[in-house]
Specification:
With 281 residues, the chain is α/β, with parallel strands linked by helices. Helix content is 35%, strand content 20%. The protein has twelve helices and eleven strands. Helix 1 packs across helix 11. It is elongated, with a radius of gyration of 21 Å.
Length: 281
């Protein structure tokens, strides 16, 4: 078995993202690929479910022991396994055909730099979509009530955050500049909320804790293109709760899978792909 282990130098370094990207590149390169999440930290179960949702690779959907991966060495297939953040690299190196260490800063042999702005060997560029939080994370961080969900639900990704104007003048051009966005505005600003809904808005957060106009609620529920949340705090406090999610939310969602697949296709040509799965020398 070819066993590629992806290890993050720290929590949030992007190991799940790289695991999915490597598996995507191998699968679309014509290989049969298994993906696994090695047990050992609090994110293991969630990451395992994310890997099991991939339609181009096989997975059990539950965290696996490192010993179990070593025992499957006779398999002819390729397995891409994510290790717990900050895991000891010694035992991983002992069984891995290739060990990829993912870090957000610094560089070294065998290191893939994630969220790195500078072009460097083995680096992937910082990407707004990959750094964006999902609606489910936004709801949790803002302690918001969910009044209506879009068809995509909690998995929808918000690349941009826009704040509704203080004035009563709606400004559709302001909202229309960005797609895949989150709009935060006061619950009583019905005209501002309606203006945002006329553009591509993944999530609308109404602040102040008050229930919105029934007309607004009916509009959102009928369209099913926007998730509507009501946060208990004011606009400034709610934005502060949400803004820390960017670059820190767990990897999830079809849009992010497609994006990391495209980035990996650019990073790994056929020669690099062959080297990735070559036997240990």
């Amino acid at each position: 078995m070819t066993l590629i282990i992806v290890a993050g130098s720290e929590r949030g370094a992007g190991a799940t993202t790289i695991t999915v990207g490597v598996a995507h590149r191998l699968a679309y390169g014509g290989h049969t690929v298994h993906v696994a999440r090695i047990e050992g930290d609090p994110r293991a179960e969630g990451d395992a479910r994310t890997l099991a949702s991939l339609d181009f690779a096989e997975s059990s959907g539950i965290p696996v022991a490192l010993d179990a991966l070593a025992a499957a060495a006779s398999s002819p297939d390729i397995t891409v396994a994510e290790a717990p953040a900050g895991a000891d690299l010694g035992p991983l190196s002992a069984i891995a055909t290739k060990l990829i260490v993912v870090a957000s800063v610094g560089a070294g042999p065998g290191v893939v730099l994630n969220r790195q702005r500078l072009a460097a060997p083995g680096a992937l560029p910082e990407d707004r979509l990959l750094a964006a939080p999902a609606v489910g994370d936004i709801a949790a961080a803002s302690h918001a009530r969910v009044l209506a969900r879009s068809a995509e639900g909690d998995a929808a990704v918000c690349e941009h955050i826009l704040i509704g104007a203080i004035s009563h003048d709606s400004d559709q051009p302001y909202f229309a500049r960005f797609a895949r966005k989150l709009v935060v505005t006061r619950a009583e600003k019905v005209d501002i909320a309606l203006s945002a809904l006329r553009t591509e808005t993944e999530c609308l957060v109404l602040t102040g804790g008050a229930d919105p106009s029934p007309y607004l609620l009916d509009r959102v529920a009928a369209a099913r293109t926007t998730t509507l949340l009501v946060a208990p705090e004011g606009t400034v406090e709610t934005v502060r709760d949400i803004e820390g999610l960017f670059g820190r939310s767990p990897f999830a969602g079809a849009a992010k899978v497609e994006r990391i697949g495209a980035l990996m296709a650019d990073a790994f040509d056929d020669a690099a792909l062959a080297a990735l799965i070559a036997p240990r020398s």
